[in-house]
């Protein structure tokens, strides 16, 4: 069984712990962390051995990571097995994760809120309808902002992130 350097092992374990707080399987996250930190693509059996996880669990987890677009299959000369590698650019990883969470969580919520706010069944109290409309309005605003940010070229996106609190100070002067 391959041994991981202590820092890599701690990161893989931490990644798994954090994932459970986000509603993601610990094994899925640990496999992702291992692939992200690896200097080469890894075959499923090596992933299973390294993490001491059942091969079937690794296979299911790899499919989930592929479904998210976080890893891809690659081939290694002289080896007939599938190997897996993670996206390596952290900003690209961030964008893929945010996009998938939006698609899986926000989009269905917005669709339901649109449906609920378009109906006037007479039984829903006015204050509840108002809160649902307010929630829908906020989520639609957030979605529009996200789509604008998602379309930014990589260097501009990074420059925007680096501006940090300067934007807040600028807007406070403009509005106040």
From TrEMBL:
It comes from the Bacteria. Keywords: DNA-binding, Transcription, Transcription regulation. InterPro entries: ArsR-like_HTH, HTH-GbsR_regulator, HTH_MarR-typ, MJ1563, WH-like_DNA-bd_sf, WH_DNA-bd_sf. Signal peptide: none annotated. CDD domains: HTH_ARSR. It holds the Pfam family MarR_2. GO terms for molecular function: DNA binding; DNA-binding transcription factor activity. Residues 23-81 form the HTH marR-type domain. Belongs to the GbsR family. This is HTH-type transcriptional regulator. It comes from Usitatibacter palustris.
